[in-house]
Amino acid sequence: MLAQTVPTQYQALYSSMTTQISSFQTTLNQSWNGTRYAVAWAPHLSTAESDDYLALIAADYYDNTVATELLELQATGAKAVTVHINFPILYQPFYTYSGTPSNYQAFVSFYQQVVAGVHAAGMKLVVEATVSEPLAGTEGADFGPYYQTLDWNDYMDGRAQNAVNVAQLIQPDYLSLITEPDSEAANGSQPTENSPAGALQLLQTQLTAFQQANITNITLGAGAGTWIASFTTYIQDFAAMPLDYIDMHVYPVNNSYLTNVLTAASIIQQSGKRIAMSEAWPDKESNTELGTLDISTLDSRDVFSFWAPVDTAFLQAMVDCAQYEKFLFFSPSQPQYFAGYLSYDTYGADTPAVLLLDAFDGASSANRTGTFTSTGVAFSKMIVGTDTKPPVTPSAPTLVSSSSTGATITWIPTTDNIGVAGYNIYRNGAVVAQSATPPFHDTDLTPGDTYIYGLSAFDAQGNVSHQSETLTITLIDLTPPTVPTGLAVAGVTQNSVSLKWSASTGGGGVAGYRLLEGTSPSTMKIVQPSVPGTSYVDSNVVSQTTYYYAVESYNETGISSAPSTAISATTLALPPPTGLQATAVSVSSVSLSWTASGGSDAPTGYRILKGTSPSSLAISVAKNLGTTYTDSHVATSTTYYYQVEMVDSLGRTSGPSNMLTVATPGSPSVPANLVVTGNLPYALSLNWTPSTGTSGVGGYYVLRGTSPGSMSIHANVTAPPYTDPGALLSTTYYYQVESYSPLGVVSTPGNLVTVATPAPPSVPTNLVVTGNVPGSVSLNWKPATGTGGVGGYYVLRGTSPGSMSIHADVPAPRTHTPYTDQSAELGTTYYYQVESYSPLQVKSGPSNEVTVTTPPLPSAPANLAVTSVVPGTPGSITLNWTPTPELAASGGYRILRGTSPTNLSIHAQVAAPPYTDPDAYPSTTYYYEVESYELGITSPVSSEVTVTTAAK
Questions:
Q1: Which of 769, 828, 820 lies closest to 799 in space, CA to CA?
Q2: Residue 171 — left, alpha, or beta (φ > 0 → left; ψ -120 to 50 → alpha)?
Q3: Using CA atoms, how far apart are residues 714 and 738, in angstroms rounded to an integer?
Q4: Would you say residue 460 lies in a domain?
Q5: Which pTM value belongs to this model?
Q6: Where are the beta strands (DSSP E) in 520-626?
Q7: Structural domain of residue 563, as residue ranges?
Q8: Per the domain annotation, does 2 fall within a domain?
Q9: Does the pLDDT at position 120 exceed 60?
Q10: Residues 413 and 374 sit within 8 Å (Cβ to Cβ)
Q11: Within 13 Å and on the Cβ side, how many CA atoms surround 908?
Q12: What residues form DSSP beta bridges with 525?
C-alpha cells in the first residue's frame, strides 16, 4: 500500500521501484541463509568529494563540515568511508592550465587531513579516482573544458598520474581506478573509454604507472555500473587483470540491473578476486526515462522524504547482498539522506539546482546537530544490529566566555559502544539545542540572570546517556553609572592639559573613568581607558593645538555611561632655539651650533631644516641630540639655508630658529689648452695652461685612457708640464687634466687630446746561415720596414735559446750584404736571431731563430812511428802515422823536426802519410812530431818520436 504522502506524479514510480527491490530481495533470500559477513561498511564522506573543488580548501571547511559528517557516519556503525579524489584534482599540470599553481598543494594538504582524520577514528578509507562531474546547485567546478583539451593518450596519462599521486600522497586503504566506463567517457569527453577495449587500455596504463612507481601497498580495484551494455564483458576483462577486487556500481533498479549484481559476483568469485561496491543508491526513474534525464534532475528527486521507505528497502537489499556475496566493502553513495530529507510540500516546486543545494545545506546542519532520518537509523541497525546501550555520561560542561546576553560552553567528548551522534544541551533543566561537537553558543539571554547548563549524549539509534553534572553561570549587569559632570580645564602648558570633573554614581558602583580626546568634537575617541580618580593630566598633546575632551564612567563589569559634555583647551607654544651659526665650513661638511630652547619644557632633541633656497627648507634630520650638528651631505660651490626646531619628549616641535646662509667652497678653473709637446718611445710630454681659483690650486689629476670612455686618474702633479713615462708602444692614448683645490674640490676635466705612440719597425724575416767556416759564421735576412724608418739591426747570439743577447749592431740602410760573425769559436753550436730598431731606438720583436755548429778542431795524428832509416850523406828517414779521420780533402799534415825536444819547427807539409825526410845527416839525433790542418785550423801535435842516424 502506497504511503499517502507520495505525490501523485511519483506514485507509479514509487510502486514500480518497491516491486523491483522486493523481487530482488526475494531472489536473494532464496539463496542466503542469513549468515552475516564482516563487510567494511563505507558510506560516502560526501562533504569531501573532489567534485566540490574550491569549497574544500576554504578556511575551516574541514573542521566545520567534513569532521562533523565523519563523526555522524561513525555513529551509524560505519567502519570505513568512501571519497572521490577524481582526476584532475591531484594532477599538477591542471593547475598550470587553470593558472592556480598554489592550489595543488592546498588540495594535497586537505586530503592528507581527511585520511588522518579517518584513520584517527579507527576507520578505513576507500577512494575512487575517476573523473569529476559537478552537479548543478553545488560549489563544484566544471572540469569539462579542461578534459576537452586532452587527447586520448594525454587523458590516460593524466588519469594514471592522478591515481599514482593519490596512492603516494594520500595512501588510502582501497583505491578504485575505473568504476563507470560509460559515464567517465561522457564526462571526460573521451568516447574511447566507452568500450571494453578502451576501458581495458586505460586500466593497463594505470597499472603500468603503479608498477613503474613501485606502489605495492594499496589494494586496487576497477569495475563498471550494472546498467552498462556489455556489463559482464567489463567484469570478465577486469577480473583477468592484476587487481585485488572488482568494483560494481548500482543506481537504476530497473530491468535486470539488480540481478546483474549476482551474475557479476559469480564471475568475480570464479576469478579469485574480491567483490566490492563503491557506489549504490536507487535512482528514481522509470523504464521509459532511462537515459533521458540529466544527472541534476535525476539526483534532485532523491531529496524528498517520501522516498525514505524505498531508500531503506534498497539499502537492506544491498546490505544483505554484501553479506551473502562476502563483499570487501559496501558504500552507500548518498549518506546526506541519513541526516536529512526535504519536505515535498515545502520544496517540491524548486529547480534541481536549488533542491540539491538546500539538501546539502540541510544535511550539513543535521550533521552538526547529530540528527538522523529514519533511513540513517535503519542503516545503522542493518550493519550493527539493534543497539540499546547508551553513551557514557559526559562530564560537566565548562565556560569558554560570557557576555551580558550570551555564553559559550564546551565539554570533553564522551564515548559510545558504536559512536556518539551528538549531545543534548540543557539550560535550566530543558533541552535548548543539539550539537554533534563542542562548543555551544547560547544567545539572547537576559543580563544579570543565572543559567544552569548540563549535557546528555545520544547515539544514532536514539539511546541517551544520563545527564551530566551542571555548570552555573551568572551574566553581567548592563546598568551603567551616571554620566560624569563638571568637566573643566585645571591647567595648560606646551605639552600638557590638566582636567578635573565630579564623581559619578551607580547601583553597580563606579570602577573608573575613560577619557575621550580629539582635535574636533566629531573626532573624539578613548585615549585613556582607565582613570581611577576624578582628575587626569593629558601629556600626549602637541603645542599650539586645540583639543576637545569628554569623560565617561564605567562599573565593575565594564558597562560605560554616556560621555560627559565636551570641553576644549589650547596648548601653549614651544620656544624656538636661538643663535644658529656656522662654526666650520668645508667642501664636504657644514658644522652648526645654536643656543638651547628655553621655556618650561626641556628639549629632548632638535630638528634640522635645510634647503638651497629660503622657500625650499625641509626636514634633514628628524631628531638631533645636543646643540651642535655637522652636515656631511653638502655639495661644493653651493649655497645652503638652515634652521633648527626644538623637539620635546612627546615629539612636538617649536617654531624655527633664525635662518642661516652658508656657501661651500668651489673648485679651481678648468685646465685649458692641453697639448702633446713630445712623443718619444715610452715617454709622452704634455703641457697646459695652469688653473686659477679663489681657494687656490692644490694640483692636477692627469687622466689617461685608451678610449674616451675609459679615462681614469693616471698621475697627480703639482704643476704643468708632465711626462708620462709609462706609455706603451703602438698605442693610442687619450688625455685630460683636472685641477683641484687645496681642500680637494675637483674641477671638471679640460680638453681631450689624442696621441699615438711610436711603432717599431717590422720584424726581420727569412734569417738564414750563408757561411760556416772556422772562425766565422755568415748570416743574411730580409730587411725590415717601418713608417718611422729603420735605424739598424741587433744581431742576437747565444749558445742556447734561453741565452740570447745582443752580439752586434748592424746600422741601416742595409742591403742583402751578409753579416759575418768573426768571433765564432770552433766546435760550438750557436743560436741567432735579428731585431730591427727605428731611428728612435724602438725595437721590433726578434726574427726567426737559426742554429749553426762551427767546424771542430781536427784531432792530433796518432801512432807516429819511424818505419825506415837509410844511411847516407844525406840519408833518409821514413815516418808513418794513422791519418786524422775527420780531415777533408782540402787539409793535410805538417812535419815538425828538431835536434832537441824544444826546438821543433815545420820541416815539411804533405797531403797524407807516409813521409820520407830526404836530408837526414849521419850521426845526428832527430825529434819528430806531426800536426794536421784544414782551412787554416791546426790540430794538436802528435806524440814525439826520436831517431839517431848512423855515423859516417
A1: 828
A2: left
A3: 11
A4: yes
A5: 0.56
A6: 525-531, 535-538, 546-554, 567-570, 578-585, 590-595, 605-611, 618-624
A7: 485-570
A8: no
A9: yes
A10: no
A11: 17
A12: 517
